[in-house]
Amino acid sequence: MIWNKSKDNKTKRADTKRPTTGFTMLLIPNSTDATKTVEISFDRLLKMFTGAVAVAIIVIGLLFSMVVHNHKLKTSLEDAESSVKELRSTNTELESTVSSLNEQIAADKEVFSKIEDTISRKEEEEAVTAAAAAVPDQIPITNANALVVNDPYEGTNGGETSGIVFSTVEGAVVVAAADGVITHVDSDDNNPYYTRGIVIDHQNGYITYYRLNGDVTAKEGYAVLKGDVLAMLPTAGYVAFEIKQNGEFIEPRSLLRENQ
């Protein structure tokens, strides 16, 4: 230590020295002989250190946040890839199912087409059968040896017929000559020739008339099929049978010929 030269005050130099408030740095550049000093105070150094620590904390926080975010992002990407794989697998299964369904639909269409063709043919056959069934070509007398005879009431003013007359025996049964609907059942007990009259509309232009003496079982409004019973004849007698086609009487035998 350096002592002060004053004899009166033997004071140490160190006692008068100012307290240390920082550092002085000597800078000597390599390219020149000039030197430079930089004073750095403790306060400034503390501020620099505090700032560095704060920056380090921020950087570490950012790095940590980035690591966490990256981990979450990686997890999300892995989950997304897993979901994509599942979707692809599901899509493959759906495509296979759709393909199978398309094949089944094609097969069903073929089957339905065949069914439709069968139904169409069946309907055509039924239409033909129904049309044939509505043609009055069946002899309207059964259960007896009915004979076509000359009209015994011709010229009798009320008894003559515009068709043909069958001679019947007791117990004969009168039936519908074709499918149709009964439109009239007339009763005239005072008629000396025929006491009952039945009219059937076959709904195809044909109308048949049955005049007889017997017990009528059919009623107006009934739908009948070819061969259905219309009346019973308790005694031998005659049955007059008439056919209209499109409003005009025709010869019944032109239709009944094939059934005789």
Structure description:
This protein is an alpha+beta fold and 260 residues long. The chain has a domain at 141-255: Distorted Sandwich (Glucose Permease (Domain IIA)), CATH 2.70.70. It is built from three helices and 14 strands. It is rod-shaped.
Topology:
Layout: H1 13-16, E1 22-27, E2 36-41, H2 42-133, E3 141-142, E4 147-149, E5 164-168, E6 173-175, E7 180-187, E8 196-201, E9 206-212, E10 215-216, E11 223-224, E12 229-232, E13 237-245, E14 248-250, H3 253-256
Antiparallel strand pairs: 1-2, 3-6, 4-5, 5-13, 6-12, 7-8, 7-11, 8-9, 9-13, 10-12, 13-14
Tell me what the CATH architecture of the domain at 141-255 is: Distorted Sandwich
**Which regions are unreliable across 5 or more consecutive residues at pLDDT < 50?**
1-7
Strand proportion: 25-35%
Tally of separate helices: 3
Largest sheet: 8 strands, antiparallel
Which percent range fits the helix content?
Answer: 25-40%
Determine the N-to-C terminus distance.
Answer: 166 Å
Class derived from helix and strand content: alpha+beta
Mean pLDDT: 84
- Say which CATH homologous superfamily of the domain at 141-255 is assigned: Glucose Permease (Domain IIA)
Q: What is the 3D shape?
A: rod-shaped
Cα-atom Rg, whole angstroms? 62 Å
Strand and helix order: HEEHEEEEEEEEEEEEH
In short:
The chain has 260 residues and is of the alpha+beta class. Helix content is 38%, strand content 25%.
